[in-house]
Amino acid sequence: MRWLNPGIILPLFAGVLFLLLWEYQVFHRIFDLKKYQLPLPSAIAEAMRDNFSLLLSYTGYTLTEAVLGMLIGSACGFLIALAATAWPRWGGGSLTMVAALNAVPIVALAPIMNLWFGDGIGSRAAIVTATTMAAMAINAYKGMAAVDPLALDLMHSYAAGKPAVFRYLRIQNSLPYVFTALKINATASMIGAIVGEFFFSSRGLGYLLSNSIKVAKMPLGWSCIVLAAIAGVIFYLVVERLEKAFIKWHPSQRA
């Protein structure tokens, strides 16, 4: 009976209707598009079937870049938040620097990172690291700073030192904010990895997408887009599942 839930049926119905309108070229007539400009879902599915092993390999490569870069970027962002909370006078400036780095467009960072780290997984991981650091730093800092004053007074009344306050109060309070940042980074990391592959790479979905567009293999290019979207959604759902496991005590997980 779970499938009768409107939260599942309505999105499923909308998705099926969208694919049918696409397959029967309704969008082509509305926007005056040719089939080589917007391939039909059947053509995309055929391209995915014919190139399944290649697409699967390249999806795994891009996902590895995204996960590795997100883990490094999130860890660095969390450490920056710790420093900003522990030493507000000196650590606060690091938040401004991270926000400034995040304001730099990915297309500007990608050539620099590729020049520094070469044609390897490290350059795309570095791009993802730079694009995911700010979300974690700002969210984690907000969670560590927004503690209940009464809880803080209680810790001080028990003569708790600074490490104990951080461990049992500030870090605990920041976990919901941390998982919010991780869910943001789960999708941002895929974007960073694919954009990085556009510029200088010999593997990955971004590389294959760029080459497919150059030689007018649009169904194959759209196959890369579909798989990137699926990988991003799965990545997000994994983070969401971890959130439910690690912060069961939070009110948002009790509903």
Q: How many domains is the backbone divided into?
A: 1
Radius of gyration: 22 Å
Give the averaged pLDDT, no decimals.
87
How can the largest sheet be summarized? Answer: none
Give the CATH H-level superfamily: MetI-like
Number of strands: 0
Present the secondary structure layout.
Elements: H1 6-23, H2 26-31, H3 41-50, H4 52-86, H5 88-103, H6 106-117, H7 121-145, H8 149-157, H9 162-199, H10 205-214, H11 218-246
Helix pairs in contact: 3-11, 4-5, 4-7, 4-9, 5-7, 6-7, 6-9, 7-9, 9-10, 9-11, 10-11
Characterize the structure shown.
The protein is mostly helical and about 260 residues long. It has one domain (about 50-245): MetI-like (MetI-like fold, Orthogonal Bundle). About 80% of the residues lie in helices and about 0% in strands. It has 11 helices and no strands. It has helices at about 5-25, 25-30, 40-50, 50-85, 90-105, 105-115, 120-145, 150-155, 160-200, 205-215, 220-245. The radius of gyration is 22 Å and the shape is globular. It starts with 5 loop residues before the first helix and ends in a 9-residue tail after the last helix. The relative contact order is 0.13. The model has no long low-confidence stretch (mean pLDDT about 85).
Provide a brief overview of the structure.
The chain has one domain (51-247): MetI-like fold.
Features:
255 residues, mainly alpha, MetI-like fold, transmembrane, transport, ABC transporter permease, cell membrane
